[in-house]
User: Which sequence fits this backbone?
C-alpha cells in the first residue's frame, strides 16, 4: 500500500488529544480491551486501603471510576476528574450514584484544599503528565496524613501484545516515518527505580511497585480500531495518510490477524504503584 505519501506533513499541529470522536471510540473499544481488566484489579487494591474519600485523576471515561464505585464501601466519597471535557461528558452520565462527583481538573494543579482525601488514584494517566513530580506533589498536598497515592503505568511495549502488534504494523506501513505515539507516551514510563525515586521525592514513603500481568481477548478489527482511532495515535496516522484512516485500520487488522488470528488473545503487563504520604 502506498500510504506514506503524506509523511512529510507529519510536523503539522497534532490532533487535539481525546476530542469528542476519539473519546467515544476510546470508551467503546479501548476501555473493554485494556482498561476494564485492570480497573477491577486496582479497585481491589483501593478497597484494601479502606479510604473514606477518594480523588481520581485522569479518570478518562470512567472505567476505574465505575469499578471503584462497585467495590468501595457505599459511604466512600468519590471525586473523578479529568483534563478532557469530552471524556467527562461520556463518563459522568454512566455513573450518577450518590457520593460520586465529576469535575474538570488538571492533576498538576488540583483545585482542592490540602488534606481533603484519603486516597488519590490514577489508572494509566501518569505517563501523560508533562510534569510528573508536580502531579505527585499535588497528590501529596491534597492527601491527609497517612493517605495513599495509587496509580498504574504500562510496562514496556514489548510486554504488551496488542500495543506492540499495532506499533509494529504501523512501522511496516510507514517505514520512513512511523507513528510513535504508543512508545513515546503510554508505554514509555516503566523504569521502576526512576518511578520510585520520583514518587519518594514528592513526599511519599513505603513506595511499592508490583507487576500485574493479564490477558485480553478481542476481535482483530476492534484491536486495530481501538488503537488507531480511539487514541491520539489517530492524529499521527491522519497527518501521514489524510482521509485514509479506514484503510489503515483495515491494513492493521489484516496484519494482526495474520500474526494472532481473527480473535487474538493478548498478554498485558502493567505496574501498580502505591506510596504513603509522609
Assistant:
Amino acid at each position: 500500500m502506498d500510504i506514506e505519501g503524506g509523511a512529510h506533513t507529519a510536523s503539522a499541529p497534532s490532533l487535539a488529544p481525546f476530542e469528542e470522536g476519539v473519546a467515544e471510540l476510546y470508551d467503546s473499544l479501548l476501555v473493554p480491551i485494556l482498561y476494564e481488566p485492570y480497573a477491577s484489579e486496582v479497585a481491589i487494591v483501593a478497597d484494601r486501603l479502606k479510604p473514606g474519600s477518594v480523588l481520581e485523576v485522569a479518570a478518562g471515561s470512567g472505567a476505574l471510576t465505575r469499578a471503584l464505585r462497585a467495590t468501595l464501601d457505599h459511604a466512600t466519597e468519590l471525586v473523578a476528574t479529568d483534563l478532557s471535557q469530552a471524556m467527562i461528558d461520556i463518563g459522568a452520565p454512566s455513573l450518577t450514584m450518590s457520593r460520586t462527583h465529576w469535575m474538570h481538573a488538571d492533576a498538576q494543579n488540583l483545585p482542592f484544599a490540602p488534606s481533603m482525601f484519603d486516597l488519590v488514584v490514577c489508572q494509566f494517566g501518569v505517563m501523560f503528565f508533562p510534569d510528573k513530580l508536580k502531579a505527585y506533589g499535588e497528590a501529596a498536598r491534597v492527601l491527609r496524613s497517612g493517605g495513599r497515592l495509587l496509580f498504574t503505568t504500562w510496562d514496556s511495549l514489548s510486554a504488551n501484545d496488542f500495543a506492540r502488534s499495532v506499533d509494529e504494523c504501523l512501522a511496516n506501513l510507514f517505514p520512513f516515518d512511523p507513528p510513535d505515539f504508543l512508545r513515546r507516551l503510554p508505554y514509555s514510563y516503566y523504569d521502576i527505580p526512576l518511578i520510585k525515586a520520583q514518587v519518594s521525592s514528592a513526599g511519599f514513603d513505603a513506595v511499592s511497585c508490583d507487576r500485574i500481568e493479564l490477558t485480553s481477548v478481542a476481535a482483530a478489527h476492534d484491536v486495530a480500531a481501538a488503537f488507531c482511532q480511539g487514541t491520539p495515535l489517530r492524529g499521527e496516522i491522519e497527518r501521514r495518510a489524510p482521509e485514509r484512516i479506514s484503510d489503515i485500520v483495515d491494513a492493521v487488522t489484516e496484519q494482526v490477524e495474520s500474526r494472532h488470528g481473527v480473535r487474538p488473545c493478548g498478554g498485558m503487563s502493567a505496574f501498580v504503584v502505591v506510596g504513603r504520604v509522609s
Remarks:
- Residues 1-16 have pLDDT under 50 and may be disordered.
